[in-house]
Amino acid sequence: xxxxxxxxxxxxxxxxxxxxxxxxxxxxxxxxxxxxxxxxxxxxxxxxxxxxxxxxxxxxxxxxxxxxxxxxxxxxxxxxxxxxxxxxxxxxxxxxxxxxxxxxxxxxxxxxxxxxxxxxxxxxxxxxxxxxxxxxxxxxxxxxxxxxxxxxxxxxxxxxxxxxxxxxxxxxxxxxxxxxxxxxxxxxxxxxxxxxxxxxxxxxxxxxxxxxxxxxxxxxxxxxxxxxxxxxxxxxxxxxxxxxxxxxxxxxxxxxxxxxxxxxxxxxxxxxxxxxxxxxxxxxxxxxxxxxxxxxxxxxxxxxxxxxxxxxxxxxxxxxxxxxxxxxxxxxxxxxxxxxxxxxxxxxxxxxxxxxxxxxxxxxxxxxxxxxxxxxxxxxxxxxxxxxxxxxxxxxxxxxxxxxxxxxxxxxxxxxxxxxxxxxxxxxxxxxxxxxxxxxxxxxxxxxxxxxxxxxxxxxxxxxxxxxxxxxxxxxxxxxxxxxxxxxxxxxxxxxxxxxxxxxxxxxxxxxxxxxxxxxxxxxxxxxxxxxxxxxxxxxxxxxxxxxxxxxxxxxxxxxxxxxxxxxxxxxxxxxxxxxxxxxxxxxxxxxxxxxxxxxxxxxxxxxxxxxxxxxxxxxxxxxxxxxxxxxxxxxxxxxxxxxxxxxxxxx
Length: 652
Fold this sequence. Notes:
Layout: E1 3-7, E2 19-20, E3 26-27, E4 37-46, H1 53-62, E5 66-71, E6 74-81, H2 94-101, E7 106-118, H3 161-165, E8 174-179, E9 199-200, H4 220-229, E10 246-251, H5 260-267, E11 276-279, H6 295-307, E12 315-319, E13 340-346, E14 364-367, E15 379-382, E16 388-392, H7 395-412, H8 418-428, E17 442-443, E18 449-450, H9 461-469, E19 477-485, E20 489-492, E21 497-503, E22 515-527, E23 533-538, E24 544-548, E25 561-568, E26 578-586, E27 593-606, H10 622-651
Helix pairs in contact: 4-7, 5-6, 7-9, 8-9
């Protein structure tokens, strides 16, 4: 039998109480054992003085709903529909119900449920289920399903299976791989290749196929593409995170040198077709370079987030860098940009990879190779000329995984803006089992847990998709110049600099900021050895961000920093009012000295609370309590594991 979901608009259908008709006949709803789902339709009863259609339309419009008229069986009931909700969910949307019930003009409201009805005389069509695991490399794709293979920790993965099971596979989303080209003839990629959105800026033609080399040097883009859109259950290689998404190849890394024009054209190519741009490249990770996008590229990125995707904003995903402890990704102007989502990597047991760079601009983490000589500990994906590999590596592998998760979220809710995606990343990422010996997990003033290496945690596809379904677009963003200094300040190894400014966060002005997203410190500084400079920024809510760590290979003493925009995400959700403190010191073997010539503090955020009309205020807010519960669950699991191990040792 062909399956049809019927959404009840009749009042008697879902109400969990009895109702009398006009002639006093009692209507008793059926008490069934059907597995109902919750739709994006709501029944709304208005108060007696607000029964007119224009009242209902005004209320619906103000609360983000569509008014679809009165219910035929009752002149008192109105049919509201929320376009941002999924048409069928397992859980009711308590947020939208609460918003309706708190409206003074509404007497009552309920969410309409949906159920199965089948045509008689037809065989029932089984639900089209998710991935079946028929690809030969799937057992090695621990970042998708970590069962403990290759020495990993079970459960430490992207948690994609529940998202797939709910039908979110990236369909309708296009991800561009900006790299050295992709093998679009590969049997695991060709069905998902979007030729219309692809271009070769290295050779100026529409065919971004990798240039042949004997050492397969130009396999980078093809490997990244397979992580995102590798076809499911076709018996070839593995499976992509968003295996029904489309992939565009933008070849722009394979010419003698990079230009501002090539970068700008690449990042602004077909912005109404391409949803997500994934970049696994940047300035040289040598621990001594400070570089970032030039003027045309900056303009292209700004235009992308403001006008791409028909005004919703292009999504730029960036690998944080492979310079390891010798480098700092805040010296990479691409990874530290507010307009990009900087992604770091963890290995399959939750530890830091040896190549990971740390910085305060990293938003979240995914996974990559551990460096251990264990078969299957790398990233399994497609390779050139129809081949497969188990050895994709570095943060290059981390960024495409994140792009795939974002494709799943856009599949669930195509109306998400570029800032919605960043907020969802912050809220849905979790600590899981990630750990680093040097940088411990901390909690900011808004109750959000973060780590200097891993950002707000490892990305969780199932959580992100579930939140995306009911997501309300975040409020308008504002920028406030909070203050600073242009007076020279001397710094030396035995005289670190501590300087503070107090700000009202532009209170009373049109650009007031109350809830933070990104914080930038524009700094001009000269020193006898740039690599020994360390910079910390402490917020009014006492959250410390390491803006710059020591880079032992950086011997510069002439260039310094010139209005360099150090950025932190660690203050996400905090109130910026109060005293901000900048600390600059030297850490190294030999005595050094320097001069801070300028510091300007910029605050970026909203005036309205971005989450359900509530942001964290103290320890009892909804967001803070949620994060604490997650932490308590992790502690409980750890405690239970310790008890089990102790019992085992005692028994043996």
